[in-house]
Amino acid sequence: MFAAIRRWFDPEEVRRVGTAPDYRFSLANERTFLAWLRTGLALIAGGLAVAQFLPPLRVAHAREAIAVVLLLLGGSVAVGAVVRWGRTERAMRLGQELPMTRLPAVLSALVGLGALVLLALVLLPSSGGR
Length: 130
Description:
Elements: H1 2-8, H2 11-15, H3 23-53, H4 62-94, H5 103-123
Helix pairs in contact: 3-4, 4-5
């Protein structure tokens, strides 16, 4: 595992594999990586915003749970982005089919599920009655 992480920070490691693809493909791969990184940062910012600015919800510790989930999801997306970038770059250099990833499907499912949970929390009747 540490060897894989070390490779992320060694730009020459990528160049040792296969032959260089058309630079436009490498730049497209980098743009995709940056888009995933922005998504991760947005989730982290959302987690911090929930923790700092969302008023307490009707369910005990729901605000904290939402913040932690968003922070963990944002970090996971950022790590997944660099893994995906490396796998894609390697495949291009070796002339292989681009690797598939479950990251978009998993992220979409989690965001949709999160929206349903938040909807339930918003619509949940208060215990004090109105």
